[in-house]
Amino acid sequence: MKRFFPTLLLVIGITIALTACGLAKQTVGVIVNERDNYLDASQIDRISVPGDLESENIDDLWEIPKIEEIPAAKYYATNAPRPVSIVGDADPDLVRIQKLGERSWMVLRRKPDSVWPLVRQFLTHNEIDVERESPDEGVIVTKPLKVASQGAGNTLFSEIRIENPDATDEDLLIFKVEQGMRRGSSEIHLKYLNDQNAVKYVDWSMPSQQAEATAAILRQLAQFEVDEVIDEAVSRIGQEVASVPKIELIRDNLGFPSLRFNVDFERTWATILSALDRSPYGVAHKERETRLIELSIESDKLDRSQRETLGSFLVELERRARDDEPFAVQLRVNPYEQSNDIELKRSDGDELTLELAEHFLVMIQQFAS
């Protein structure tokens, strides 16, 4: 027994030493080491590869998303803030025409860098020459169409003459390619103009001068895409197109979120109402003049996951309703430069939590189209 006693002491000592080393690396326990606290982590400079060496092997295999600065990260009550929710998949339809009043545009489940060649090939297919293209603006301007001089063999020009009997040889088109509301989608907007001087005064928030002719051309373009007439191509020029997303979740200097729509008010308002109509929440009240919408939240229309997300907020909502002291979640559309920001508040003056505000805003973003 005495022979093994020193060995036993040695084994116990090594075990204690290894355990202590392990504890020293933990963020909880006897010894706390905060040197690897990821909330305080900072980005280091990218490795610089000498010019005579190949850098391909150290390139990122996956795109690393931009790190979002959230000043309020350290002040979350019990845990670190979750990453911003990812928007759902694009609409399952490959291509569709959307309308808002007399305005119409085309939505495709493709990125702008492959939609740009689609427009160019459509114009080439119909023997329409390009006067100017501006990838930064996502704009393609055609030369005069010479509609009146075209023969009956071209289906596109025949459609234009039917919808616009007064078409002249001076008529021209302006296409605008932009990112869509959904991730990985694009939009094609079109203006039909009667002369080149009108190019300087185009307002994309207004209907085209010839709404019916514009709609007919978009239908032809959509059919061109569906018929797979085009070659599958990605344009380097198209990669520069409209880098600003239609919808983006932003935060103020305290980390509180809001939803920014980089479109005009008419489309912002229509998109929000459409998103709420498809969501588990409804519209209890709306005032277009004051840009205010109150959400309707009914427990029996929510699934288990949604009820758990709302948690104590839903309990309070139901209790206050029984006590005839109801309150609502209010959504207000605030103009900001060329955009519109969506702000969420409670009608009783109390603040929504960061997590709940993000839940409602991301829900709108997911159901927007």
The N- to C-terminal Cα distance equals 79 Å
CATH uppermost class of the largest domain? Alpha Beta
CATH fold-level name of the largest domain: TATA-Binding Protein
Question: Main sheet: which strands, in order across?
Answer: 1-2-6-5-4-3
Largest sheet: 6 strands, antiparallel
Q: How many structural domains in the coordinates?
A: 2
Please give the radius of gyration in angstroms: 29 Å
Which word captures the global form?
extended
Give the name of the CATH superfamily of the largest domain: Kinase associated domain 1, KA1
Mean pLDDT value = 76
Give the ordered list of helices and strands.
HEEHEEHEEHEEHEEHHEEH
Query: Which regions are unreliable across 5 or more consecutive residues at pLDDT < 50?
Result: 71-78, 84-92
Give the tags:
extended; TATA-Binding Protein; six-stranded antiparallel sheet; 12 strands; 20% strand; alpha+beta; 369 residues
Protein model, in words:
The chain has 369 residues and is α+β, with helices and mostly antiparallel strands. The chain is built from eight helices and twelve strands. The chain has two domains: 95-240, 2-Layer Sandwich (TATA-Binding Protein), CATH 3.30.310.80; 247-367, 2-Layer Sandwich (TATA-Binding Protein). Strands 1-2-6-5-4-3 form a six-stranded antiparallel beta sheet, sandwiched between helices. A six-stranded antiparallel beta sheet has the order 7-8-12-11-10-9, covered by helices on one side. The longest helix is centred in the N-terminal third of the chain and has 20 residues, at 5-24. It is extended. Mean pLDDT is 76; it is low at 71-78 and 84-92.
